[in-house]
Amino acid sequence: LRMPAVDELPLQEVLQALSSTPKGNPQLRAALATTCARWQLLRGEEEAAIRHLSHALEMVPDLRPAMRLLYRIYLGKDDVRSAVMYLDQEIRATRHPREAAALYRERGQLVEAHFHDLAAAQQCYQAALKATPRDLAVLRAVERACLARGDVFGLVGTLEAQLEVVRDAGLSAGILHDLALLEARHRGDLPLAGDLLLAALELSPGHLLLATDLFRVAEVAGDTELMLQALEIEAEARNDERRAMPLARAAVTLREHRERTSALVLLQAAARAQPDNASLWRSLEELSMATSRHDIALEACVGQLRAAGDEEDPTTRAELYYRMGKVALFRLDRASEGLAAMRKALRLNPGHVPAIEDTGRFLNAHGMWAQLLELIKLEIASASEAGLTPEEVALAHLRAGQLMEERLGELEGARECYEAATGAYPSYRPARDRLERILHQQTDLPALRSYYAEELAQAKTTARRRFLLSVLGQLYAREDDPAQAIKYLANLLKETPRHLPSLQVLARILARAGRNRELLKVTEQEIALTESAGRKAKLLARAGELALSLDERPRAREFFEQALEAVDDHLPSLGKLGALLREDGDYPALVELLRTKLLYANDKARQVGLQLEVATILATRLDRKQEALDELVKLLKRWPRHLPALHAAESLATGLGQHDTLLGLLEQHIAAVSGPRTRALLLHRAAQLRTQHLGDDDGAIRDLVRALELWPQLGVARAKLLRLYERLGRSRELQAFAEAGLTSERGADDRRAMALQLAELSPRPVVAIQYLGAVAEARPEDYVTQLRLARSCRQAGRPSREAGALHAAADAFAEQLPTDDPHLLSLRYRAARAEEAAGNLDRADEGYARILDVQPGHALARRGRLRIKARKREAGMTRSAQELEATAH
User: Fold this and answer.
1) 77: which of 9, 462, 544, 780 lies 20 to 30 Å off by Cα?
2) pTM value?
């Protein structure tokens, strides 16, 4: 839409409308007056506009558009007080907090700009903050006022409030930076300032100003970790060339705090960043040598050489090459690099004595023996020109020989050098000693014999002659013919009869030659000279073996006994003497020897074996069974679970008739074993012992009960227990035990016996029928059981069951007796009689007929058939009468 021009505005119509509007309608009059004022301002009629706006405010005192127009008019006329007055009225009339905050801020700016009253301006800003606490423009204004007034705490609070409002990372970092500077410069909390700067760096990474200020704060606070962090940030922010300074400062900081390793790494990085800085390379060399990082020290020396260039003083460069070569040779074991550096150092400064000495020391210490040998040979060749003495020449030959012997492994060349040294200076003892050593290494026996023969010819002291004779004897002892060795050793023993090593060598030679009798004499001499008890016992045992080989048994026994006197527990002597006593049959002495062995036996198995052997010899060889039993009892006191000892002791106690002892051994045996059946058998054996020899029936019953608990199927124990119950008259226990035996016994005979026993014990025939019926069904051919069953059935009044039992008994007898046997016929008659009593007339008649077939004159059977006929006739008549009666009805 197009704005109307000033001339086109209907100002007169609005004025007429205003004049015609009654005062009773103030809001309309105020709106019309404000509209007139706006158009008058557009036409430049400010005074008229002021009158209309004043009228509008009279009509509606809270009319904010009128107040805003008056504020602008007076502000444009530089009438600040009037403008402030109308601005205050607008603030009072404002209801929205953000608009009020904007008005307060505007009033503060007016007061600050025109009246220079910072306190009043700050009050306005604070009032604006109450309305809108998160208004960034107001916060900036408050910050400016606090900064101008020097109100540090107010400034800090304002910055903190801005930090909560601002969302831009850069602005937040700047605010944090200002807060940190305020903390640091006004004696505030330096750690807090450091934390603020760290937070700012997180928001603005790589900011050099922040990193620099962080380092300064950390340095003032003495916070090493923060200093290092600041330097790290600064180093990462700078380019490669400018990174050296922060890295070097970090290295210095770490070195001051004894963190040499980390300082070394940083200083190395700094030197690499500025390779032309010689001072950095020198510092790196010193620090790397202090931390034993010799590879870095070598790099630092190379860096110094590159930084110095070819224009540097040759002496200085030679020193650098020497240091580099020394590190490479002695610290890094880089021979080629080190020797090359040493050569350059000597080329630059030929008179460099430390380089010469260290190079020679390296050649000697690092195995460059060929070069060192050539150097020594050169020294020997120029000996006459150098004016060396014969002793010095011999020493040079000795050094060359040592080098060839120990380093190059050229024994023949070393031998030539030692011989040359001996030729140059014959009385030079080290050369002759080395020559002796090399001859031993070459195992050149002829040369050694010749050498020691020469030494023997030149020897002057007795000790030296003794030594040489001993060595010559040992050298000749290796030959097949020991005559020469015996000759030298005999000469030695003539000079020194108590020379024990020579005696020992002579004994070995005689033993190898098989000359036992002479060896025995030498061994006796050695025994006389030996003071050590162990060595003496060993020699005596060897002498005993030699005596046995010469068939001198009494003498051998004497030697073995002397060895045991020297050392009580000498095992070889104990073994040999024991074998000798067994062969001679001297069992009393053997028992004593075994008891001596027992004293020194350490392990359990050995002790048990010795005690068992002693007991066996006492029982079998010496017939001292009581002592053998006592020995076994002692053994069982220490090891009560040793089964072989228990068996042997039980056998001895049985043979000696010591039933109490045997009972105790059996109880111990029961406690020792774990198998239930073995324990049950042992308990049965103990019960037999109690009943047969000790008369302890109650104890026997207890043992048998325990045995049957462990092995219920042990029939002998059950039978024994039944017999004990019967003999003692314990019918109740007997009956209970027999009932249990019916289910636990495995054998049919045992169950039959139990059933018969129960039948005899039962007071009621009906109960007896149950026990006997089960046995009769299992074994129908058992006529005894059948007869007992028939008797019980007769007593209980069960003729049918009685008849079956009698028939079974008769059938069993029929297999063994003739058919006309009276007893068999009697059983058949009783069976038929029982069938008759049971009402089985046909079967009874059949039984009687069977008897009459065998014996026609059997009167009882004939009478029985007559009775049956009569009963059948009566039964038929009764049945006919009943049928007639039934028909009549």
Assistant:
1) 9
2) 0.36
